[in-house]
Write a structure and sequence with these properties.
2 copies of one chain form a homodimer. Chain A is of the alpha+beta class and 246 residues long. Chain A contains 5 helices and 10 strands.
Chain lengths: 246, 246
């Protein structure tokens, strides 16, 4: 069988996340149904990450096996034609090695979190960012973000429900930057714990508000205590930006 | 009675336009219902323009009369609290002269039209721009846009159904500019005919594709023939950007 990789962009607003589930719309199910119609087979896809309800993807990678003889590069336009472009667009497809798995054959991921920091809400940003009305000290947030970089036990930056064997992860970079009234937090790591970027974001916003001091960050991370970190930022500001393929 | 002005931002995606109508959601109805709850009166509002289904507003002005003693500046936050911030946000309210009418007391309006010009669709832009996959010649579009400026009879740039006495309008500026893969067409005029900005946009896109030559623009405008202009661009790329108050 051929192994096909597809890259997607999706707006997660209308989905209960990537993963297929009963009685709720998922990106996976939309894509599997469309690929099944295209190939005439029952297609199961493997995704690079299990994004939560409301989380978006600027670049999502999946793969699936098929006996179809459709040229590999035609799967992306064929898939896009079957989907609502307001929700999911397939931007690229190619044939890959039989061993390739979108879940395992990656060397890390990069997420970006968008905060709308303004005195006024903006309807165009509500589904695509976290609205934070308080004045945030960006310089303190930048200082604090650097403590996340490196290899640490991120036990305190994980929601309950994760089932991983170790909570040690390596954050390659954690950057805070501002464009107009939007603040971005961009994090690249070898792998992520459940809700990790959203808890890092919530913690950095607490730093920006003065609720947590940047100089305490090292202690907070080392403590491994969830309650010392900040709140979990809401899902609609989070975007999977890049899957770093091996 | 007091006369209160309110400025709104709204995402028109979920509405059948500004104007109240039977069996369809309108911005006007949402706002009137909310203001009626706030004041305990039956509120009728006057809007600055009758935006079509799917058209957005970055700054919309309305006014209404009330006996309520709520301080004028409190109406905006009170109204926002009653509305879904993903759709409508009230950004400002103030008491104005009894004679003021959002419909008549303005000296023109500015619209901006957003085109997404790329080989790839983007789900985040689908409801907020017109997707044009063809390569567009921006320099030709800029040249052509200048012919719209000034006082002309814009009979050829109007959808049937307008009920105005004259089709002469003065366009103060018509600018085409690009930011990444987005092209903006910004038009300010003393007043607009029905679908005028959308037909100007469709015509400029035809110029960008080479279907219409910039050097024919003067003739096309003077002819007054709708069929010589371009298509009517779809509503979701259009934004009311500013109402110029007298």
């Amino acid at each position: 069988m051929r192994n096909i990789l597809i890259e997607l962009i999706y707006d997660g607003s209308g989905f209960h996340g990537w993963q297929k589930q009963n009685n709720a719309r998922s990106v996976q199910e939309e894509v599997e149904n469309a690929l099944s119609r295209i190939t005439g087979e029952t297609v199961s896809v493997t995704g690079s990450s299990r994004t939560d309800a409301g989380v978006h993807a600027l670049s999502y990678i999946l793969n699936f096996y098929t006996n179809s003889e459709i040229p590999a590069e035609k799967f992306a336009p064929a898939l896009s034609a079957q989907l609502n472009p307001q929700e999911i667009v397939a931007v690229r497809s190619e044939e890959v090695d039989g061993e390739f798995s979108a879940r395992f054959s990656n060397d890390g991921k990069r997420y970006v979190y968008k905060i709308h920091n303004s005195r006024q809400r903006n309807p165009f940003l509500e589904k695509y960012s976290w609205y934070v009305p308080y004045v945030l000290d960006i310089e303190e947030m930048k200082k604090a973000s650097k403590f996340f970089e490196g290899t640490h036990d991120f036990k305190g930056f994980m929601a309950v429900g994760g089932s991983q064997q170790t909570t040690v992860r390596t954050i390659r970079c954690c950057e805070v930057y501002q464009e107009g009234d939007e603040i971005f937090i961009e994090v690249e790591a070898d792998a992520f714990l459940y809700n990790m970027v959203r808890i890092i974001t919530g913690t950095l916003v607490y730093v920006g508000c003065g609720k947590i001091s940047a100089s305490d960050m090292s202690d907070i991370i080392q403590s491994g205590e969830r309650e010392r970190a900040g709140m979990t930022a809401p899902p609609q500001g989070l975007y999977l930006k890049k899957v770093i393929l091996k």
